[in-house]
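Audit log entry. Action: structure prediction of a protein-small molecule complex. Ligand: 2-acetamido-2-deoxy-beta-D-glucopyranose. The ligand was supplied as SMILES and no pocket hint was given, so placement is left entirely to the predictor. Protonation state taken as written. Sequence taken verbatim from the request; no trimming, no tag removal. Recorded inputs:
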Amino acid sequence: MLFSKSLFASTVLVALLSVASAGKSANPVKGQTGVIRNAKDFCLFLPPMYGGDIAANEDRAVAFCTKPNMPGAPKVGVFPAGFIKSAHLARDTKKEWIQITGRIDRSKYGLNKKDGGGQYDIKAPVGSKCAGYNHYVELIEPDQQIYCIRCCKNKLDCPVNKSTYGCKKVLGGNYN
Ligand SMILES: *[C@@H]1O[C@H](CO)[C@@H](O)[C@H](O)[C@H]1NC(C)=O
């Protein structure tokens, strides 16, 4: 039974090596879970790279937040300084949704002034989510320098079928 013992040993070795390399490669990857706590503590999904096109990165967007350690949202990035110009909270405690709307300075993340923007939701990027809620919808419009994100318990409160309408028509809210 010497053969099967050494086979076992090398299987264990391969398993250990793959755990070690998985740990290494997973390290720089940012998470795809965001959270909204209040107008000072919240996250948005953004392209993983500076200057990325919003719609072209709908399969790769990652969570960036106002600070690194957000409860329920591990491994998030932090917004570049000055990127968020304003943030206004709205919520409906009866329907159980919460949203943040406001202005960005697109230059702080190299976003293109010709980028009409796009939408992120639980299906794009696949697996992305807003901690504590079943659904979310986010639109970012670099050309208008506005953004909006709403997290919802109920699907109908987070409409994902109007991505070209823009923040003001889809979610309303304050964009000052
Ligand atoms: C989006 O879906 C809602 C709910 O199903 C529907 O009432 C609305 O007409 C749809 N809008 C568009 C633009 O497809």
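Audit: result stored. Residues 159, 161-162 surround 2-acetamido-2-deoxy-beta-D-glucopyranose (CB under 6 Å). Confidence is low (pLDDT under 50) at residues 1-27.
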